[in-house]
Fold:
Amino acid sequence: MAEYRWLERRARGWYCVKDVPRPLRATLGKKRWVVSLHTRDLHVALARRHAALASFEAEIATARSTAGASPLIEAGMAWRGTFARIDAGNASQIAAFSGRDETRLNDEGREIDRTAQQVARDGAELVMSEDFDRMREERGDAAAAAFQAVALGHATPLLHYLDQWLAEGGARGPVAERTARQYRSDLAQLATWATTAGVPPTIEAFTAKVVGRFVTEAMVGTGANRKTSNRKISAASSYWRWLAKRAVAEGNPWQGQSLSKARPRGEAPAEPRPFTDPELTTLLSGSPDPEISDAIRIGALSGMRIEEIYRLTVADCAGDWFNIRRSKTTAGIRRVPTHPALASIIARRTANKPTTAYLFPEPGPLRSGRERSMAVSKRFGHYRIRLGVDERPAGQRHSLVNFHSLRRWFVTKARHGFDRAVVAAIVGHEAGNLTDDVYSGGPTDAAKVACVASVCLPS
Structure:
């Protein structure tokens, strides 16, 4: 119905949704714009929908302006590179512009002494000024001024280096696709705020003062969730650290800008936790579909992360061991004993399949940069909420229990009879700083097998 347009009902309440125009999906890093309206009341959702749509349109406008200015910005950045190479003494670049500038005379009519670099720099600026005049005629004063500011290094588009930053990543390599989409969205919102707040959407414009204004106006002033706000601040801070490392920005204005985690004095923060035995019993006996049922049992009796489970192939499950070849951390690359209670599940899921087939084929082929477990993770969330297995402290958006709580449950049970070095080796954690942990060579396979077998599902 027309009055429900752009609204979508989900388990946690009403959401405002709208498709991102196809030409802008690469810029924004998503195909669909989804934002929670933080209510389960339809009438409240209808009232809040318009403000959410206005924010969406502002974000789209910023993306369009960025995309539309791309050729101009690229031309400016190309000239900036030329000037940088001349200043660095690049011989071929100096030679290319050494004859472009006219001889300069002082007040007495004598030629001014200049180095080859100075002559080349003046010649390059002369040619660049011709591009400036042409752009002013074709696109107007504002576009030409933007080109000149970029070319001379006075302004750098806020999102210009975003792709390079995400591709380079950090110690673990390129940023994961899911995280990259989130970072793109967070920084696109920053660019949107800059445009609406009258701040130039450039790297140079974001001083500590401007960042403080952004945090106050866009986060504290709107009552935004503090955990979400700190995640966005952290994303921007990571981007600026990379910019500073590459000598694009001077310092990191986001340092020290995170919000304090407000809570009543003396009250410990609510942390994610393991499932209790009664909760796990409820999940196992709640008639889950075969995929979720198998995933719950494997997660609870192996301690593997959900994406580790969904990346397993038939070959990875041979010989009563799970061979985890891709994980979140280096320590996560490991072998995990197959619990005896999982033998029938593994046999059923590997029977008559090629060695390259996935243990869980339900999500289909692996899409580039995606997580295979994303769909089942959401379905598991809906399943446990339907059974009442949920805990959300007042004012907290996310539950304290999720699929990862199976991993926490396994660790809790395994630690009842085995030391942390054995359990850490099984679940793929760093053992610690103790000399015995670091230099012992790790626990034996027999110790790992005994540890896994000691964990039993609740009756």
